[in-house]
Structure formats: structure tokens, C-alpha cells
Design a protein that fits this description.
Blueprint: H1 2-18, H2 20-28, H3 33-62, H4 66-85, H5 89-117, H6 124-151, H7 155-172
Helix pairs in contact: 1-4, 1-5, 1-6, 1-7, 2-3, 3-5, 4-5, 4-7, 6-7
Amino acid sequence: WAWATRFLVQIGSALGTLYLLYFLQDRVRHPDPEQGLLVLILCYTGGLMATAVVAGWWSDRTGRRKVFVTWSGVVMAGAALLLAAWPVWPVAVAAAVLLGAGYGAYLSVDAALITQVLPRAADRAKDLGLINIANSAPQVLGPLLAAPLVVHLGGYPALYAATAAVTLLGSVLVYRIRSVP
């Protein structure tokens, strides 16, 4: 379950970020999409940095992981739904901050969760290698999944709705992991 939830949230992240330049150009109609993308990347990074350490610290203090993973997914899904519903520049900026904030919290807490579910010390390197596939494969699969959504199945609203759905599913399925609070 830990692998599956990580994979789904990473697919959501890939879907939500890989087409931002085209989204700004085609849907938001930003006058300078490259400059706009830079601003969104900086907002995303600021949100990520603001929550990564705090969420990890808070999760360690409370000893709870799943609730943080789930709420970070809810925040990321909410950001994606904002992009799906209101494709305007101010909403894109707010969504970038929220997406980064959710992803920062997710990364810090899910990393702790993953280390808690590794079964045997002797197999940890192999197990972490498998988890790494859940991190990297979505970067390859994201464009393959996103292109048909944008071109044939509803455009950018469909892309960001799918982003929200996959991210939310991945963050909720963390409750299937029984060995971690």
C-alpha cells in the first residue's frame, strides 16, 4: 500500500505540473507564459519549503503519519480543482502555493511513513529502490496520461480534475496501511 499511495500521489504531481506552461499559454492566456511559469515555480517552491520541515516536525511530535499524508493530498487536490474551475492568473498563483504546500508536507511525512513500513532491515536498500520507482515512473508516465486528457478528453479542466482525483485517491488509500498511526 505504501508503494501504491506514493505512486498515485506522484502521478498526480506529474499531471499537475508537467503541462503548466501550455496551460498558461492556452487557457490562462498569460502574456508571457515562460515568465509566468517561473513565477509559479517560485510560488510552488515557497509553499513546499514552508511546509516540509513544519509538517515533518509536527508529525514526529504527534507520532501520526496518515492524517498528515491525507490532508496534504486534500490540499494538493484542492489546488488542482482550482486550476480546473478557474483558469485565471491569480488563481494559478494561489494554486501553485497550495500545490507546493501540500507536496512539501506530503514528501516529509510520507518519507517517514515509508521508513516505518519497511519489513526487514536486511532488505531496506531493495525496498527503498522499489519505492524510488514509485517516485520516478510517474515522471515518465505523466505525459503519456496527460496528453490524451488535454487533447481528446476535455482539455485542461479534465487534466486538473484527474490530477485532483488521483492525488486524493493516493492520499486516502494510506489508511489501508495498518502498521502506522
